[in-house]
Specification:
Elements: H1 20-24, H2 61-72, H3 122-125, H4 132-135, H5 139-142, H6 147-167, H7 172-183, H8 185-192, H9 206-233, H10 239-253, H11 255-260, E1 279-280, H12 281-290, H13 296-305, H14 308-315, H15 321-325, E2 332-333, H16 335-345, H17 350-366, H18 377-380, H19 387-406, H20 414-428, H21 431-450, H22 453-468, H23 470-481, H24 493-509, H25 518-523, H26 527-542, H27 545-551, H28 558-573, H29 578-597, H30 600-606, H31 609-624, H32 629-639, H33 641-646, H34 650-679, H35 685-702, H36 722-728, H37 745-762
Antiparallel strand pairs: 1-2
Helix pairs in contact: 2-22, 6-7, 6-9, 9-10, 10-13, 10-16, 10-22, 12-13, 14-17, 17-21, 17-24, 19-20, 19-21, 19-37, 20-36, 23-24, 24-28, 24-35, 26-28, 27-28, 28-34, 28-35, 29-34, 31-32, 32-34, 34-35, 34-36, 35-36
Length: 769
C-alpha cells in the first residue's frame, strides 16, 4: 500500500465513488510490444559482458513507443475513476489554431464555444501587440510543441495582453478588443481589478487595462526565469519532469487571469467574493470551460493543475516550520506557491517523477470523499465503513500528523503523535483500505497522465528511455556531475532506485504490458556501463569511500552514516551479480573498520559509548514487548560491540556493526516488501523513497538516539508492516523542515491548535495541550 504524506486534499464534499462493477468494466488494454523472454525469466544476474537472452524488452523501440502511447490515449470513458475530477477535460494546446479542425474528443466536453476559429482573434494575433519581440516571453512555454505550431500558440498566450493594450486605443479596434475581453469572463474580471485588485465593480478604466497588461508581462517574465533556472540547474531532467515544470510555469505566467477565473469573483455573481491572489480548482475549471478566446496551452495547464493530487502538492509548496504547523491544505495556491514548487519541489529525474505521480494519485484516490460526519467509530467499528472512507481518514490523519510534528517546539506532542500513530497504523493494516488503494492508485496515475496530452507523450518517451537504459545512463551522468572535493566518489544508488521506481510506474500505467526488471535493464547495458557501476561499488564500499564521505559531513552520526552507506550498497546489490558482491564482502568489512577507526565519530561508536547509553536498555524494552527477529538481533548486535572490543576482537566488532546495520536495513526492507506483497506488486516509488529515509532512523533507534519514536516504530519486519510506515509517512512529499525560532510563540501556538485540534477532536485523539 502506498502511503503519501503529501498534503491531503479537502475532504468535505461528496463525490460518487465507482462501484465494483464499474471498476471491473475497464476496457482491457492492448499488449505493448514489450514481451518477456522465456529464456531470461527473473534470473538476471550475469557476468559483465556476457550475452543476455532478455533482449525482447528492448527491441523495436519505435513500435514499443507507439504501443505504449496507444494505451494512454484510449478514451477516458473506458476507465472509471474515483476522483472528484471525473469530468475534467483534456484540452489540446492548439484547439483554436485551425479554423477548419473540429475540437478534439477530449476538448469537446467543453462545448463548441471552447474551440473558436483562428479568425475570431486574428485582429489580436496579427496586431502590433503580438510582434515577434512581444512573443519572445512565451517561447519557453511553447518550446515543447512542433516548430510549426509554436508561433500561433505564443500568439494565443499573448492575446490577453494584446487585447488590453488595444482596448486603450480609440476606434473600431478598441471596440473589438473590448468585446473580446467581455466575451472571456476570466479576462474581464482580471482587467476589472487590474489597477486596485480585490473587488470587481464592472468599471474598466484605461488604468485598469494598463495595469493588467503590465501585470501579465511581469508574471510571464518571472515564470520564464523560474523555468530557465530549473533547466539550468537540471540539464539531465527527464521529459516527464520537464513537461511538468513547463506546465507549472504556464500557471504563474498567467496568474492575473487564473486568480480572477472563479465565477464567484465576477460582477453580479451570487455570493460574490474578492480576487485575493489565490487560484482554486473551481477557478481553473471555469477558465477552461467559459473562456473561448484564451489559449489552449493555458487551458491544458489549468486542466492538469486542477487535479486534486497535483493541486494539493502545490498548495503547500514552500511551507516549513511553524507555517506548516499552522496550515492545512486548502486546495488553493498563489504565484509564490507555484514558484516555490518549481524551484524546490519539482521532480528532477524519472524516479522523482514516478514518486510524485504516485503521491498525487494517492491524493486523487480520496479527493471528494466526505469524512465530515465520521468519528472515532471508524476505528471501533471498522467493518461499518468502506475502504474509500477509511482511506480518506487515513490520509487526513497523515496530513495532520505532518502539522503536529512541525509543531513540536510549540506544544508537547508526544501523546498526540502516539495517538495518531496508533490510528494510522490501524488503517494501514485494514484490508479494505489496502484493496481500495491498490485498485485506485494505478487508475488515478493513468488518469493524471491522460489529463495532459504533452505529458502523455513525455511519459511514453521516458518509458522507452527507461527500458533501453538511456534514462539510467543519464542519471549516472548526473551523479557524476555532483562530485566535489568533499564528495569525490559519485553515488549511483539514486539512479538505481529511480530505475526501479520508474519500472513500477510502468506496471501501473500499462498493466497488460510486460515490463523488464531493473536487473534485466542493467544486464542489457554496454560493458562500460556495467563496469562503471561495479567500479563505483568498489570505491564506495569495498574501499570505504561512501562511509568516509558520510562521516565527514557536518552533524553526521556514525550509526546513521553506517546505515546510510549500507542502504546505498543495497541499491547497487539489487542489480550487480551476486558472485561479484560476495567477492567484495571481506574488503567491505575491513574498509568499514578502517573508516570508523579514522573518524572521531566512528571511534565513539566502536568504543561502545553510545551502546552504554542506549543499546541494552532499548534491547530490554524490545524484549519486554515481545519484539524479535531481525529488529531485535540488530539491536543486540550493536550492544555486543563493546564486548568484542574489550576482548581485542576489532574485526569481530566491525562485523557486528555491519551485520547489525544490515539486519536493521533488512528489517525495514522486510516491512517495505511485506507492504508491497499486500499490494500484489513491487514496492512503489514512494515506498522506496520511504525506505531510504527511514534507514537512518533505524540506526538512531538501535543506537539509543531516537527521540519521540515509540519503541519499534522505525523497525519493520519483526513488527507489522504498519510500523515502518507510521513515522515514515513524512518521508514522502515535501517533508518537514526544522522549526525556526520566533518571537510570537503564543500566537503560533494558537494557530497550531486551530489547525490540528478539530481533526484530533473528531477522531478521539489526545490534543497537544
Amino acid at each position: 500500500m502506498r502511503i503519501s504524506s503529501s498534503p491531503s486534499p479537502a475532504l468535505g464534499s461528496i463525490v460518487n465513488q465507482p462501484t465494483s462493477g464499474e471498476l471491473a468494466a475497464e476496457t482491457p488494454l492492448a499488449k505493448a510490444s514489450l514481451t518477456q523472454s522465456s529464456a531470461g525469466g527473473d534470473q538476471a544476474f550475469v557476468q559483465f559482458g556476457q550475452a543476455n537472452d532478455n533482449t525482447s524488452f528492448f527491441s523495436d523501440a519505435e513500435q514499443s513507443g507507439s504501443s505504449l502511447m496507444s494505451l494512454l490515449t484510449r478514451s477516458s470513458n473506458s476507465e472509471s475513476t474515483s476522483s472528484v475530477d471525473q469530468d475534467s477535460d483534456q484540452v489540446s494546446p492548439m484547439t483554436s489554431v485551425l479554423s477548419t479542425a473540429s475540437a478534439s474528443p477530449a476538448a469537446s466536453a467543453s462545448g463548441p464555444a471552447n474551440a473558436p476559429s483562428a479568425t475570431d482573434a486574428a485582429f489580436l494575433d496579427n496586431s502590433e501587440y503580438s510582434s515577434p519581440e512581444a512573443l519572445k516571453r512565451w517561447d519557453p512555454m511553447v518550446a515543447h510543441l512542433p516548430p510549426e505550431e509554436r508561433e500561433q500558440a505564443a500568439k494565443e498566450l499573448n492575446r490577453p495582453i494584446a487585447a488590453a493594450w488595444m482596448a486603450r486605443e480609440h476606434g473600431p479596434n478598441a471596440d473589438k478588443a473590448m468585446a473580446f475581453i467581455n466575451a472571456n469572463p476570466a479576462l474581464k474580471t482580471a482587467v476589472d481589478v487590474g489597477k486596485d485588485g480585490g473587488n470587481a465593480d464592472g468599471k474598466i478604466t484605461n488604468k485598469d487595462l494598463k495595469a493588467f497588461a503590465k501585470n501579465m508581462e511581469k508574471a510571464a517574465d518571472n515564470a520564464d526565469k523560474d523555468l530557465a533556472k530549473y533547466m539550468e540547474d537540471n540539464p539531465g531532467a527527464d521529459p516527464q519532469s520537464l513537461e511538468m515544470v513547463r506546465s507549472a510555469a504556464v500557471m504563474p505566467a498567467n496568474m492575473p487571469l487564473a486568480t480572477a477565473a472563479d465565477p464567484h469573483h465576477a460582477v453580479g455573481a451570487p455570493d460574490k467574493t474578492d480576487v485575493d491572489g489565490n487560484v482554486s480548482a473551481e477557478g481553473l475549471k471555469a477558465l477552461i470551460k467559459s473562456n473561448p478566446g484564451l489559449s489552449g496551452t493555458l487551458k491544458q495547464s489549468s486542466n492538469m493543475w486542477s487535479q486534486a493530487g497535483f493541486l494539493s502538492q502545490v498548495d503547500e509548496a514552500g511551507l516549513t516550520g511553524r507555517k506548516k504547523a499552522a496550515h492545512s491544505p486548502d486546495q488553493v495556491f498563489d504565484a509564490s506557491n507555484m514558484s516555490e514548487w518549481i524551484r524546490k519541489s519539482a521532480p528532477k529525474n524519472g524516479g522523482q517523477f514516478a514518486s510524485m505521480l504516485s503521491d498525487a494519485a494517492t491524493l486523487n484516490s480520496v479527493a471528494g470523499i466526505d469524512i465530515s460526519k465520521l468519528n472515532a467509530q471508524v476505528f471501533e467499528k471498522p467493518k461499518a465503513y468502506t475502504g474509500a472512507q477509511k482511506a480518506a481518514v487515513m490520509i487526513k490523519l497523515q496530513q495532520t500528523q505532518q502539522s503536529v510534528i512541525a509543531g513540536r517546539d510549540l506544544r508537547n506532542t508526544e501523546k498526540t503523535e502516539a495517538g495518531l500513530n496508533e490510528r494510522i497504523a490501524q488503517l494501514q493494516a485494514d484490508p479494505d483500505v489496502q484493496e481500495y488503494l491498490n485498485k485506485s492508485i494505478p487508475e488515478q496515475e493513468r488518469s493524471l497522465v491522460r489529463s495532459d496530452s504533452a505529458l502523455q507523450k513525455a511519459v511514453t518517451e521516458q518509458a522507452q528511455n527507461v527500458n533501453s537504459g538511456k534514462a539510467l545512463q543519464t542519471d549516472l551522468a548526473t551523479a557524476d556531475k555532483a562530485v566535489d572535493k568533499h564528495n569525490p566518489n559519485p553515488d549511483y544508488s539514486g539512479a538505481i532506485t529511480g530505475l526501479s521506481a520508474q519500472l513500477q510506474l510502468q506496471k501501473d500505467l500499462f498493466p497488460d504490458a510486460q515490463v523488464p526488471t531493473a536487473q534485466q535493464v542493467f544486464n542489457n547495458q554496454p560493458d562500460e556501463v556495467q563496469t562503471k557501476i561495479a567500479d563505483s561499488y568498489v570505491r564506495n564500499f569495498s574501499e570505504g569511500g561512501a562511509l568516509k564521505q558520510l562521516l565527514g559531513q557536518k552533524k553526521s552520526d556514525a550509526g546513521e552514516s553506517l546505515q546510510t552507506a549500507d542502504n546505498q550498497k543495497a541499491a547497487y546489490e539489487s542489480v550487480l551479480p551476486a558472485d561479484f558482491v560476495n567477492g567484495e564482502r571481506e574488503s567491505y568489512t575491513a574498509s568499514t573498520l578502517s573508516e570508523l577507526q579514522n573518524s572521531k565519530k566512528g571511534r565513539k561508536l566502536l568504543e561502545g559509548k553510545t551502546d552504554e547509553e542506549g543499546g541494552p536498555s532499548l534491547a530490554a524494552q524490545l524484549a519486554e514487548q515481545g519484539i524479535g527477529g531481525k529488529a531485535f538481533n540488530s539491536v543486540m548486535g550493536f550492544a555486543s560491540v563493546s564486548d568484542r572490543l574489550a576482548s581485542g576482537d576489532k574485526l569481530g566488532a566491525a562485523q557486528s556493526i555491519i551485520d547489525s546495520s544490515r539486519l536493521g536495513a533488512e528489517a525495514i526492507k522486510g516491512g517495505i516488501d511485506t507492504g508491497a506483497k499486500m499490494m500484489g506488486r513491487e514496492a512503489s516509488a514512494g515506498l522506496g523513497r520511504l525506505g531510504g529515509q527511514m534507514i537512518g532512523r533505524a540506526v538512531g533507534l538501535v543506537a539509543g538516539e531516537a527521540t519521540g519514536l515509540a519503541a519499534g516504530a522505525a523497525l519493520g519486519a519483526a513488527i507489522p508492516v504498519i510500523g515502518w510506515a507510521i513515522d515514515g509517512a513524512m518521508a514522502l512529499g515535501f517533508g518537514i523542515s526544522a522549526i525556526i525560532d520566533a518571537v510570537k510563540k503564543h500566537k503560533a501556538q494558537k494557530a497550531f491548535d486551530h489547525n490540528v485540534d478539530p481533526v484530533l477532536d473528531q477522531f478521539g485523539i489526545a490534543k497537544a495541550h
